[in-house]
Task: inverse folding
């Protein structure tokens, strides 16, 4: 019986293929690093041809472990969002390097749009801010600066897409030019309540509507692979941007359910149900799911510095040799001795949004040592998350439980501190690869292995470790007062 799911997990630094059994157990995986191109300060590019070639290599490495392509019920794709690929529909070849989500080159154009007074309208329609992060202005940059892209647009053969769209085009042998609604909702070119890209927004940003993919559901028979690739047509049954995928992988399928991923930075998404989100606190509104044409939404907030603060303690200060040692140091003392760190090493993200802010350490004394600094660094995660929780609550989306993942979530001390400081239960799944798991759930439901996404999530989600809040109010209040004072210093 063909009941394996093949997930193609297209990260920023690597591409992976992962084979899941229908109960959500990971059976095999293969991974290849992607070359990062930095042509100028603030610019980040990928070679879309390399992404495709390495994806195919990884897929071919794991398919035999299922017993061949015949055993695969469906393919799920999850990807780095907001990265733009431009290719020629006729040749099927990229026209220039992909511009990666981190790339800041369109900042002047965003500023121009903001100065012309467009931000309020764009935010109300798309849930996003005018920031180079999002895909639309990257497409415009290619049209203005790459003659091959402009020429293809004039010939009528230009195709734009985010990474999942590019891969489906290649996997289908050029038959399907589609993008799922979660990726489409990161472009600035689609209103949150619209079924597809909007010609008015396309005109504002300067992107030809004809070059864009068709916006489709995230689960179902979305496309099929060309027979010659794997010896059989395999249906592509799940497509989803990485943060939405992790939210689904954490089974946050009801309003108020929230996941926080603590990697280099931290990404928090709260399920908002069918109501189109609006934020008065500079959080983002985004599509969480589109199933049978019906959408649910999420509110999203990101913190720039999370695990990277621990990396800094390790690499620049030498306070630990490996990241996990922060846990033992934090446990070795009863409190941080009054030390507070505001980790604004690369500015402050949501809800403060201050790119110019820089970090501070307050409360140093002669009794401050490595344990106090390490503990204050971990405490900063709960402090930053607490500010986000307040912003989410002010937007009408209070958190129930908090479901955590990402490399830093392995730290039990931090997980307990989050529960204590937020006053909510924190849950951590035993299988931490929630991004791949979310795509597997969508693909399994889309392939008919489960009647719907909720049943797929219920059966495929592994066991959980839970952390219950136990801190006294006075301790929490004292911590928050210190944090607020330190923030003011920033
Ligand atoms: P990304 O996907 O952004 O590359 P990961 O999810 O792999 O990041 O998380 C890695 C980050 O988590 C690193 O910045 C590392 O410093 C931090 N980290 C990993 N393990 C721990 C730990 N036990 N305690 C604290 N931080 C940790």
Result:
């Amino acid at each position: 019986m063909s009941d394996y799911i093949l997930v193609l997990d297209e990260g920023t630094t690597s591409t992976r293929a992962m084979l899941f059994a229908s109960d959500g157990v990971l059976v095999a995986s293969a991974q290849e690093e992607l070359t990062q191109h930095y042509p100028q300060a603030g610019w980040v590019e990928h070679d879309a041809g390399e992404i495709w070639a390495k994806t195919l290599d990884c897929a071919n490495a794991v398919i035999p472990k299922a017993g061949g392509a015949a055993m695969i019920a469906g393919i799920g794709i999850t990807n780095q969002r907001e990265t733009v690929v431009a290719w020629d529909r006729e040749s099927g070849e990229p026209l220039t390097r992909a511009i990666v989500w981190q790339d800041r080159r369109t900042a002047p154009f965003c500023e121009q749009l903001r100065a012309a007074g467009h931000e309020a309208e764009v935010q109300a329609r798309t849930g996003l801010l005018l920031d180079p992060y999002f895909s639309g202005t990257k497409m415009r940059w290619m049209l203005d600066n790459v003659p091959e892209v402009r020429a293809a647009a004039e010939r009528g053969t230009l195709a734009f897409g985010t990474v999942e769209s590019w891969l489906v085009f290649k996997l289908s042998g050029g038959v399907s030019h589609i993008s799922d609604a979660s990726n489409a909702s990161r472009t600035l070119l689609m209103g949150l309540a619209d079924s597809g890209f909007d010609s008015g927004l396309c005109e504002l940003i300067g992107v030809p509507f004809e070059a864009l993919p068709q916006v489709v559901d995230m689960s179902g028979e979305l496309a099929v692979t060309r027979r010659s690739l794997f010896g059989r047509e395999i249906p592509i049954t799940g497509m989803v941007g990485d943060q939405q995928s992790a939210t689904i992988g954490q089974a946050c399928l009801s309003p108020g359910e929230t996941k926080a991923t603590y990697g280099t930075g931290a990404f928090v998404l709260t399920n908002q149900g069918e109501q189109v989100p609006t934020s008065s606190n500079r959080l983002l509104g985004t599509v969480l799911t589109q199933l049978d044409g019906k959408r649910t939404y999420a509110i999203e907030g990101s913190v720039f510095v999370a695990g990277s603060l621990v990396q800094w303690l390790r690499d620049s200060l030498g306070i630990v040799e490996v990241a996990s040692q922060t846990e033992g140091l934090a446990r070795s003392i009863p409190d941080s001795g009054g030390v507070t760190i505001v980790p604004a090493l690369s500015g402050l993200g949501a809800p403060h949004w201050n790119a110019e802010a820089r970090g501070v350490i307050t409360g140093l004394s002669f009794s401050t040592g490595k344990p106090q600094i390490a503990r204050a660094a971990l405490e900063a995660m709960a402090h930053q998350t607490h500010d986000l929780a307040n912003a989410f609550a002010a937007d009408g989306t209070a958190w129930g439980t908090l479901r955590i993942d990402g490399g830093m979530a392995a730290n039990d001390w931090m997980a307990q501190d989050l529960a204590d400081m937020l006053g909510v239960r924190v849950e951590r799944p035993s299988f931490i690869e929630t991004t791949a798991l979310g795509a597997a759930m969508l693909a399994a439901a889309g392939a008919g292995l489960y009647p719907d996404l909720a049943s797929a999530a219920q059966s495929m989600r592994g066991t959980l470790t839970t952390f219950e809040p136990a801190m006294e109010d006075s301790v929490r209040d004292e911590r928050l007062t210190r944090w607020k004072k330190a923030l003011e210093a920033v």
The chain has a mean pLDDT of 94. The chain is about 35% helix and 20% strand. The pocket of adenosine-5'-diphosphate is lined by residues 263-264, 307-308, 310-311, 323-324, 326-327, 406-408, 410-411 (CB under 6 Å).
